[in-house]
Write a structure and sequence with these properties.
Elements lengths: L8 H9 L7 H5 L6 H13 L1 H9 L10 E6 L2 E6 L2 E2 L1 H5 L12 E6 L5 E5 H17 L7 E4 L5 H13 L2 E4 L6 H11 L3 E5 L1 E4 L2 E4 L1 H7 L8 E5 L14 E3 H5 L11 E2 L3 E7 L7 E6 H15 L7 E4 L6 H13 L3 E5 L10 H9 L3 E4 L1 H10 L14 E4 L6 H11 L5 E4 L1 E3 L4 E5 L14 E2 L4 E5 L12 E7 L7 E2 L3 H8 L7 E9 L5 E6 L3 E4 L2 E4 H9 L4 E11 L3 E10 L7 H14 L8 E4 L13 H10 L13 H11 L1
Parallel strand pairs: 4-17, 6-7, 6-8, 8-11, 11-12, 16-17, 16-18, 18-19, 19-20, 32-33
Antiparallel strand pairs: 1-2, 3-13, 4-5, 9-10, 14-15, 15-26, 21-22, 22-23, 24-25, 25-27, 27-28, 29-30, 31-32
Helix pairs in contact: 3-4, 6-7, 8-9, 11-12, 17-18, 19-20
Family: Belongs to the ATP-dependent AMP-binding enzyme family.
EC number: 6.2.1.1
GO cellular component, one term: cytosol
Length: 656
């Protein structure tokens, strides 16, 4: 923890001076909450009586058998809706098959090359049932394991929903991973079936996927079948007789009748691998029933979902956010969800705007990285498009700096939209810190308030609550349904990883501040602190000073060993396209840091770079930057990288 005297001074000044932006009262009256007063009452009741709140939420969904008890136990072992039985897929698809809703558009898919597919809820239901019968035909039953190694295709969504329907455990893996990284996860997970494609389009290139799977499963003894989607179609794809099957061949003649499998509310359904700060990837296990139920109500208020929404979560299916928002949150609320295969700036930097305009997207969930990219390209790419359809833009992943917030609100949204910044982790499976769209006052840079049913706190090292506007450790004191239940095949690691730092709490490893208005500000990871000549400096505060300098899109600061100071800041800076690196540019950055923090925080080196090592979610992997400047190479796990070539580019930059 860093106190105000230890390096957070300017950051805390920014937090204390942040202004509330109050939503349009007319919009609040038309929200799903109905009014600010209605939501405020619901919020207070959810904190005071969480058992009743979760019972009321669950009653909005379809159950085969009602639960005996709403909540049982606490961290680390807990249950919700004990002995309650339902099916997640039924609540995502079947529940909407009434005469009117069934013909509503459920899924829009667009490929990088312009290919499109459209599914109503009835059409999607038929395809999901057919693929469910395909999986049953391969011998899969409730509790079996499937791995999905696909890009953002319509078939990817269908495969996920089929697993929900049959009670099959599934694990989606980012399709940009190498065969080695894929194999590492498959060995740990042990799937019976792997679902992939012949290839995928990425920035005009065709990426082979099936060949990666063949390489990966050589040492995976559990794999019995591989299902291959023909995405490219005309490429040569090696197929092993009896083991490998084309999706289209299996679907031909499959029945559209497949009853949903009953599932007890606490049975595992999702295994999702996430790279930790240290050590091997962790297989985070979630209950699929709780995952769908919790994200149904959170998405409802985070996005202010209405049946006629056209919603776009820009995340890759290899990031749990795509499941949280693009599948569970969207379909549980009966809206139209968009899945897009390609990069947001290919073939031209206007691709994002093009899709928003084309489909009249009114609700967007994305990462701050996207906005910073759009800022970098400039407003000229925006001008040809009518973006007046945009109503709500919600963020997660990286800290949303105030400059990016203001650009989203003022430039992209013309001050007519709601900007909702959130906080969540793979382990929380959603965002217990967020705002309710068109209800909660907005604050540029904050992660919103403690959300429905959550019990978040900022504490000292002993777990004692600390005063508002004081930095501390962010913890969750009480579980919510969608919290992590264990780590796949590593129950001891589950306890050690999350529940040994602060007794009785889930430990997030994040620093945070709660302000006087109840807004939370997540300041960064606990290791994002460097000690420079006895001064404890926040790398996030230095990054904030850099991004306030005109012409900077994003920045990452890490500490490097220094024989005199102990550690010294090193900055990696991505400039806007029209700002070339120069001594004058570098001096303006140093002046900004001096003005905001002091000369002690000036980096010993500033590297200008167009690439940063990032996860599929858009998070900059500062750990890898730290290893490069310290050791000249990478010592830890890099399997979570979206683009592994970024490492070589940064290494070359540092060598110069």
């Amino acid at each position: 923890m860093i106190d105000e005297k230890g390096g957070r001074t300017n950051e805390l000044k920014m937090i204390k001076g942040a202004h509330l932006y109050y939503p349009d009262p007319e919009k609040a009256g038309k929200s799903v909450a109905g009014s600010v007063e209605n939501f405020s009452f619901l919020l207070e009741e959810s904190w005071k009586n969480p058992s009743k709140f979760w019972s009321d939420v669950a009653s909005e969904l379809h159950w085969i058998k009602r639960w005996d008890k709403v909540m049982e136990g606490s961290f680390p072992h807990f249950k919700f809706f004990v002995n309650g039985v339902m099916n997640p897929c039924y609540n995502l698809i079947d529940r909407h098959l009434g005469e009117e809703a069934g013909n509503r558009l459920a899924l829009i898919w667009e490929g990088e090359n312009g290919d499109t597919k459209f599914y109503t809820y009835r059409m999607l239901h038929a395809e999901v049932c057919k693929f469910s019968n395909v999986l049953k035909g391969l011998g899969l039953r409730k509790g079996d394991t499937v791995a999905i190694f696909l890009p953002n295709l319509a078939e990817t969504v269908i495969a996920v929903l089929a697993c929900y329907r049959l009670g099959i455990l599934f694990n989606t893996i980012f399709s940009g991973f190498s065969g080695r990284s894929l194999g590492d996860r498959l060995i740990r997970y042990g799937p019976k079936v792997v679902i992939t494609a012949d290839g995928a389009y990425r920035r005009g290139r065709i990426i082979e996927l099936k060949s990666k799977v063949d390489e990966a499963i050589r040492d995976v003894k559990t794999v019995e079948n591989v299902i291959v989607c023909r995405r490219v179609g005309n490429m040569k794809t090696p197929m092993k007789e009896e083991r490998d099957h084309y999706w289209s061949d299996l679907m031909r003649g499959a029945s559209i009748d497949c009853p949903p499998e009953p599932m007890e509310a606490n049975e595992p359904g999702i295994v999702f691998y996430t790279s930790g700060t240290t050590g091997s990837p962790k297989g985070v296990v979630h209950s699929s029933v709780a995952f769908v139920l919790n994200n149904y109500v959170y998405a409802k208020y985070h996005m202010d979902h209405h049946p006629d929404d056209v919603f776009w979560c820009t995340a890759d299916i290899g990031w749990l956010t795509s499941h949280i928002w693009g599948i569970a949150g969207a379909l549980a609320n009966g809206v139209t969800t968009i899945f897009y295969e390609g990069a947001m700036d290919y073939p031209k930097p206007d691709r994002f705007y093009q899709i928003v305009d084309k489909y009249r997207v009114n609700k967007i969930f994305t990462a701050p990285t996207l906005v910073r990219m759009l800022m970098r390209y400039g407003e000229e790419y925006m001008r040809p498009y009518d973006l007046s359809c945009i109503d709500v833009v919600t963020f997660v992943g990286e800290p949303l700096n105030p400059e990016a917030w203001h650009w989203t609100y003022e430039v992209l949204g013309k001050e007519k939209i709601y900007v909702n910044n959130t906080w969540g982790q793979t382990e929380t499976a959603g965002c217990p810190l967020a705002s309710a769209a068109w209800i909660t006052p907005m604050k540029p840079g904050s992660c919103g308030i403690q959300f429905l049913g959550a019990d978040m706190d900022v504490v000292d090292v002993n777990g004692e609550k600390i005063p508002d506007e004081t930095p501390g450790n962010l913890v969750m004191r009480r579980p919510i349904p969608m919290c992590v239940r264990t780590l796949w095949n590593e129950p001891e690691r589950y306890i050690k990883e999350y529940f040994t730092e602060i007794e009785g709490c889930y430990y997030t490893y994040d620093q945070a501040v709660r302000d006087k208005d109840g807004h939370f500000w997540v300041l960064g990871r606990l290791d994002d602190v460097i000690n420079v000549a006895g001064h404890r400096l926040s790398t996030m505060e230095i990054e904030s000073a850099i991004t306030r300098c005109g012409g900077v899109v994003e920045a990452a600061v890490v500490g490097a060993p220094d024989p005199i100071k102990g550690l010294t800041p090193i900055a990696f800076v991505t400039p806007q396209l029209n700002h070339e690196p120069s001594e004058e540019f570098e001096q303006r950055i140093m002046d900004s840091i001096t003005d905001m923090i002091g000369k002690i925080a000036i980096p010993s080196r500033i590297y200008f770079t167009d690439v940063m090592p990032k996860t599929p979610s858009g998070k900059i992997m500062r750990r890898l930057l730290r290893e490069i400047v310290t050791y000249g190479g990478i010592k830890g796990d890099i399997s979570g990288l979206e683009d592994p070539t970024a490492i070589d580019k940064v290494k070359e930059l540092v060598k110069k």
